[in-house]
Design goal:
It contains 18 helices and 11 strands. By secondary structure, the protein is α+β, with helices and mostly antiparallel strands. It comes from Lithohypha guttulata.
Amino acid sequence: MELFLFHFRLWGTTLEQVFLGTRAFGTIEPRNLEVILSTDFEDWSLGARRKVMFPYFGDGIFTQEGGDWKRSRDLLRPQFLFRQYEDLDVFRQSMEDLLSVLPSDGVVDLQPYFFRLTLDVTTAFLFGESVNSLKHDVQGGQADFAESFNVAQDYIAKRMRLQDLYWLVGGRKFRKACDTVHEFADQIIKKNLSRDRTTDRENHQYVFLDSLAENCPDPKELRSQIINILVAGRDTTACLISWTFFLLLRHPSVLEELKAEISSVLQGRTDFSRSDLKKTTFLPNVLKEVLRLYPSVPVNSRMATKTTILPVGGGSDLQSPVLVPKGAAVAYSVYSMHRRPDLYGMDAELFRPGRWTENMPLYDDPVNAKWGYLPFNGGPRICLGMDFGLTEAAFAVVRLIQRYPNMRLPATEKVELVGVEKQTMTLVMSSTNGCRVELSP
């Protein structure tokens, strides 16, 4: 991502380049993103995304366009109403499982645990019961699923980077990983749709799968939608929680301020609800700042379905419209846009949650204010699970700080400038060296 940042600093907020022999554009200009993602939404498509992802994702909300996509969105939107998780019960058991497997003290890399936590939470929400990857040593079909889940996504990430040349990446290992994930999903869907739901109804437990299955009778479509949500639900939130602790431990004054707020608002209670979390003010700003510096999907792209224009970025002053021919791709890097000093101040590359209560340059222009911060995308395709993910992350952060109030950065860990650390890009961006913490109750 630092290479993207370097290019935009060198050439401006909108640039043109030749990538693998194909003319393409890049932008981190809010006015252009407003046009691409909202105003001229119909002029832009996902390009090769469906072909790239189809062997794994099938026909689900992330690969569909047009009428199919609108139907999927209408189908899935009601499932993410916050009343389904207002009491936080869907997060609570998996969180307790995490706390039970973590050591009481010592140095541990939390990042792999966070990926297992969010897998357990997401499967509990989707299926009514978790795969319990934290509770048990993953073995048998679960081990195959977990490994194949990661292998397939690594292949998809490589295929995405090649766009129309995606077919160069594939082969038997990729197909086997996709088949394993599909088979596991089919089995768990069949098992959960056939089990007795009397207990769920008596406990008023909401089950995503039951509600979705009522309106989605095709088993293949049901499986595709579930895999789409499962991937998004696990990876993006796991990365958010990981980067949050990565940054908090390197900024002890911020961690102390957050601990003080949690103690003041919740008074040591662990049975708090989403409404209680909403009473915090610093915690949401911490998460906003983490997502500013480390958006889960740091770069995305669209393809022009007809010859069109971007409103700004051309000419000698870089303020004139830019002609984009039909079929050309435009990549947009929210990672780079979120680091613009003219939007976030001269300290834009520093982790400072307090900036969200200040009068940042971002707020000087209404277009910048709306389109200059896009950790969950924007327009008609804005993330449906935004509140769910933020609530899950907030819950995890609070419970870990309550359990380990004296956690600190291990003495062996390097403290580098924000953004200089090694990053791993798959479908999301994670820390290559993990999130190592010295736990202390």
